[in-house]
Every structure is written in C-alpha cells, then in structure tokens.
From TrEMBL:
<dbReference type="InterPro" id="IPR036890">
    <property type="entry name" value="HATPase_C_sf"/>
</dbReference>
<dbReference type="InterPro" id="IPR003594">
    <property type="entry name" value="HATPase_dom"/>
</dbReference>
<keyword id="KW-0902">Two-component regulatory system</keyword>
<dbReference type="Pfam" id="PF00672">
    <property type="entry name" value="HAMP"/>
</dbReference>
<dbReference type="InterPro" id="IPR003661">
    <property type="entry name" value="HisK_dim/P_dom"/>
</dbReference>
<dbReference type="GO" id="GO:0016036">
    <property type="term" value="P:cellular response to phosphate starvation"/>
</dbReference>
<keyword id="KW-0472">Membrane</keyword>
<dbReference type="GO" id="GO:0005886">
    <property type="term" value="C:plasma membrane"/>
</dbReference>
<keyword id="KW-0418">Kinase</keyword>
<dbReference type="InterPro" id="IPR004358">
    <property type="entry name" value="Sig_transdc_His_kin-like_C"/>
</dbReference>
<dbReference type="InterPro" id="IPR005467">
    <property type="entry name" value="His_kinase_dom"/>
</dbReference>
<protein>
    <recommendedName>
        <fullName>histidine kinase</fullName>
        <ecNumber>2.7.13.3</ecNumber>
    </recommendedName>
</protein>
<dbReference type="GO" id="GO:0000155">
    <property type="term" value="F:phosphorelay sensor kinase activity"/>
</dbReference>
<dbReference type="GO" id="GO:0004721">
    <property type="term" value="F:phosphoprotein phosphatase activity"/>
</dbReference>
<keyword id="KW-0812">Transmembrane</keyword>
<feature type="transmembrane region" description="Helical">
    <location>
        <begin position="32"/>
        <end position="52"/>
    </location>
</feature>
<dbReference type="InterPro" id="IPR050351">
    <property type="entry name" value="BphY/WalK/GraS-like"/>
</dbReference>
Length: 372
C-alpha cells in the first residue's frame, strides 16, 4: 500500500513538473514573439544598411534589401497574427483557469477570435457560468438551511414552553379546581396537536424541497375529480357555518396527469388558509373550474380581509405569516401555502394570487392538460 502511494505521489509530482515545463515553454515562446522578433527585424534592417554600404553593386544590394524586407514583413505579420489568434487567447484562458481554481467563478474570457479557440473559450465561459450558478444555489441552500433551523427552533420553542409551564402549574397544584385542570389540559393538548402538525408539514416540505416525495400520477377527468372533492369540502365547510359555492365553467371533459392526493392537499391548504384568516362571521369561499390559455384553472376566492400589496410577494415563502399575533390562535405553521406552491409546481403548474384589502383574495391554480 505504501509503495502504491509512493508511485502515485511520484506520478502526480512528475505530472506537476511536466505542467510547469509546458507553462515555462509557453511563456518563453510568448516572450519571443512579443520582444525577440521585433529585435530580429531591426537587426535585419541593420544588415540591409551594411549591404548598401559595403556592396558596390547597387542592383544586387537593392534586391537583397527588398527580399529581406518583404520576408521580414510577412514573417512579422504572421507572428503578430499568431500572437493575436493563439497565444493571447491561450494566455487569457490560462489566467481564467487559475481564477476558477482559486474559487472565483465570476470570471469570463472575452472572445476576440473566430477560430477553434472561440469554441473552446465559449465552452469555458459556459462552464464558468454553470459553476457560478451552482455556487449560488449552494449558498442559497446553506442560507435556507440556517433560516429553516432558526424558524423551527422559534416555532417549537413557544408551544414547548407553554406545555412546560402548564405542566409545572399542575404539579405545583395551581389548578386546584377540576374546571381549571381541564382548561390547562386542553391548552396542553392544543399545543401538542400544533407541534405534530408542524412536524408533519416540515417533513412534507423537506421531501418536496429535496424532490424525494413520491407522486402517484394518473390521467384524471378533472370535472369528475373536482365535483367529488367539492362535495366533500362543501359538507365540511357548511358544518362550520361557512358559505361555499362551486362553479364548473368547463364546456368539455379534459384529462389531467396528476396525483389526486397531492392536488387535493394543495387545494385544501389554500381553502384552509382562507378559513383561518377570513371573516369568521360571514365567511364565504367560492371555487371556479374553467379552461383558459391551454390550461385548466382552479380559482379559489374568499371574502376575507385581503392581503396588502407589500406582503403579496412573500405569502408563498415558508414560515411567512401575515399577522404573527393572530396566527397563534389559528394553528398556522406558516408552511401551508409554501407546500401548496411546491405541489402545484411538481405537476408543472403555476399558482398565482391577487388580493384587495377588505374585499378578499383569489388564488388561481393553473395545471397543464394531459397530452393525448
């Protein structure tokens, strides 16, 4: 094993020495083209001067002078072209590779040639751009990981502290009456349910984020699917004294390639969000199914307090809450809309929102029609 490592070390060491020699040769040639050739050209001009001075035959002198001058001009033009088309791009590429090796991916080689080096430089620039994007994604994931840990810690700390406080109160005999004890136990139970819901949502969102959630896709008749789901939701909402209306604006039956369970979960999350934040006295939820611009659209509208324009861009962010104080009473994990967005996008769909304060909000799910 030691001998093998020794040979490997020797191999890499020899490779490094060979690379150094190539690097030295390249710079030697480059220096020669930049400085030596002009010097040789000047030397040849000096020879021409001597020919004029020492050779008596003027015709012979002129012939040699013209021949040497033309040869040197063509030679110098060729070398200048070689410098511009090959050596300079190679030098720029070498410096760019060194920058990449140092971890600087924000580097680009300016392409001034149209030969094979242009293809090489273009490929290098594309590679550098991909490396830069990968680094940005890596940093974004790291930042998201830190934010996620901070949010989880904050969201778990409050209910756990509440449970601990009420448990200590019960142990110390503060809950002397059966009514007070029952109240404390209900609060503890309420917080335990919240913690379980938060953990379930976190688990689901993490699997979505890592693209490890299994989807059971199938061709589904969207009208029949929505009719069954809306009947179920209507029964649940009307039990809570919530006015519910469903409109089927489709004029034909279309198939969608989707996971029944996941799309239902996305719709339930949006409606659940409307119920949590809506007008608790006269809340109304309206769902409309229609076809527009080559996609099936499901519009979910409520008559709640609405969302201010400055908060709209953030409502699909995980752990984002419009009103932190009110959400404590609504069992909100801050992940419902983020999960809905991920589930819809996993179906190659989109989700949009429009809202007017004091009038309500409208979430629109857009799903592509299945290919026949």
């Amino acid at each position: 094993m030691y001998t093998r490592r020794k040979h490997m070390h020797k191999y890499f060491h020899m490779g490094y020495e060979q690379e150094c020699w190539y690097h030295k040769d390249f710079h030697l040639y480059h220096r020669y083209l930049r400085w030596a050739r002009p010097a040789v050209f000047l030397f040849n001009l000096f020879i021409i001067y001597l020919l004029f001075k020492w050779i008596g035959n003027q015709a012979v002198s002129i012939f040699f002078a013209v021949f040497i001058t033309i040869k040197e001009i063509f030679h110098l033009a060729f070398l200048m072209r070689l410098e511009k088309k090959i050596f300079r791009p190679m030098d720029q590429l070498k410096h760019a590779v060194d920058e990449i090796a140092k971890g600087n991916y924000n580097v680009k080689v300016e392409c001034e040639v149209t030969n094979e080096f242009a293809v090489l430089i273009h490929s290098f620039n594309r590679m550098a751009e991909q490396l830069l994007q990968s680094e940005k994604i890596k940093l974004a994931y790291e930042e998201n990981r830190k934010t996620l840990i901070a949010n989880i810690s904050h969201d778990l700390k409050t209910p756990i502290a509440s449970i601990q406080g009420y448990m200590e109160a019960i142990e110390e005999g503060v809950a002397a009456s059966p009514e007070k004890l029952d109240k404390y136990l209900k609060i503890i139970h309420h917080n335990i349910i919240y913690i379980n819901k938060l953990i379930d949502d976190l688990f689901l969102f993490s699997k979505l984020d890592m693209e490890k959630l299994d989807f059971q896709y199938e061709n589904v008749d969207i009208r029949s699917y929505m009719e069954d789901l809306m009947e179920e939701l209507q029964f649940e909402l009307e039990e809570k004294q919530i006015q519910f209306t469903y409109w089927d604006r489709m004029d034909q039956n279309l198939l969608l390639y989707l996971d029944r369970k996941r799309i239902q979960q996305a719709i339930r999350n949006i409606i659940g969000n409307a119920v949590k934040y809506g007008n608790q006295e006269k809340l109304a939820v309206e769902v409309t199914l229609f076809f527009q611009e080559d996609s099936i659209r499901i519009a979910i509208k409520d008559n709640g307090p609405g969302i201010s324009e400055d908060k709209l861009p953030y409502i699909f962010d995980r752990f984002y809450r419009i009103d932190h104080e009110r959400t404590k009473d609504f069992m909100s994990t801050g992940l419902g809309l983020a999960i809905a967005k991920e589930l819809v996008e996993a179906h190659r769909g989109k989700i949009m929102v429009s809202s007017t304060e004091e009038e309500g909000s409208c979430f629109t799910i857009m799903l592509p029609v299945a290919k026949s």
